[in-house]
């Protein structure tokens, strides 16, 4: 008899605080061990980022969905591809730093190819100028994927292709630094003529803030927010 172990928000808080000080390699081992219950646990944390970002992309995408090649960066267990598939997208390549997460993504049957890479440490394993949509949800945050990876996302997009990103904006000094650094980089890339800004939107209350401990009364009010941005790679 398989035992369904259901975790609550406090369990998630303890779990995620246990990996707060991990380096990139350690964090990926943590994700390997978390992969099997990740989607269940995401629901406990009310993790709505994939839904919000895909709605945002969908509202701004006018091309041929069936023929569009999608690079799903930091794809995790495949939540983004599942939602995009429902909207008619069919061609997915996934990249993640966790082998366990890629194993879960493989079970969806949606990806033509899945590639293992620790972003920021290893180069993004994607052909240059090959993708109609490059998307990254949830991983652009301090201690996860460095700002420098944004240029690699742009590089993987086709001329005229879209890069869709969501950035986590945690209330912390390091979070503020990351946000400022990322905004500078996005602006710089625009000035260099690499891409043009299409649209940005706030991502409100997309997940409970389980990364910080807080007293019981505050806990219910504590949600993370962020920003979603869409850029179009310059046609060469």
From TrEMBL:
InterPro entries: Methyltranfer_dom (IPR025714), SAM-dependent_MTases_sf (IPR029063)
Positions of region (Disordered): 217-236
Domain Methyltransferase: 66-182
Signal sequence annotation: none
Alphabetical list of Gene3D superfamilies matching this protein: Vaccinia Virus protein VP39
Domain of life: Eukaryota
An example Gene Ontology molecular-function term: polyprenyldihydroxybenzoate methyltransferase activity
PANTHER family hit by this protein: JUVENILE HORMONE ACID O-METHYLTRANSFERASE (PTHR43464:SF23), METHYLTRANSFERASE (PTHR43464)
Identification of the protein by name: Methyltransferase-like protein 27
Pfam families in the cross-refs: Methyltransf_31 (PF13847)
Organism, as annotated: Seriola lalandi dorsalis
